[in-house]
What does this fold into?
Amino acid sequence: MNVRIHQIDAFTDRPFCGNPAAVCIVDSSTTDAWMQNVAAEMNLAETAFLVRTDDGYALRWFTPLLEVDLCGHATLASAHMLWDTGIESSESEIRFETKSGILTARRDDDWIELNFPSEPASPAPVAVHTELLLALRITQKQVNYIGSNRMDLLLEIESVAALIAIAPDMVQLAKLPYRGVIVTAKSNETGKDFLSRFFAPAAGVPEDPVTGSAHCCLAPYWQSRLNKDSMVGYQASRRGGFVAVVVQGDRVLLRGKAVTVLRGDLV
It folds into this structure.
């Protein structure tokens, strides 16, 4: 079976920055095992698989190890691919049917806007705190907040410097019963409201470059602290990337750019 595959850097306007995702269109007979094997072969944070439907696309996301319920950067990459190749008109809104409900994407000049569910955090069980601090190699005094949502842990750390300095024990972090850990800090720079990093070794992604779904948690968190509905987040990974967010009730708009870096065929 020949399948066209695209590799796209998301949440950036420059190649080799942001978060790379692979995207391909398959048919409904494609097996889970084949998709997981392709994702392992691509060895990116996520590989997205699209199946055409009557009014859009069914969309699934796989890391090198497993399928996930929500992924921002690979959704942005999927929309970019559909417009960039001319499969969809640049004026059209794209609907994606996913494990997290209907997600939509629309273009605004060079920007792509995704409509995602809000995933706010609530205080995490106290039993988690000690294991998390040990895995992140930080102390309780450095922490302002620890919470969790249905997917991830969220930790606010005292400063940007402390955020940048984190060097987790990935083996210990992978033992926590969550998809990943979001660490965040208030920004001290103009043009950025907050910074974050995201670690998901249990899902086969030690540190994710730019995580759209994490911003579904970060947006309502910082909205309540900064008293702002519209913000700009910067994910301070080695590749780095910006995610503009707007909180609208129980939804979060994620805005970013993308660039195609590779096209090929799975044979």
The chain has two domains: 3-115+254-266, 122-249. The domain at 3-115+254-266 is CATH 3.10.310.10 (Diaminopimelate Epimerase; Chain A, domain 1).
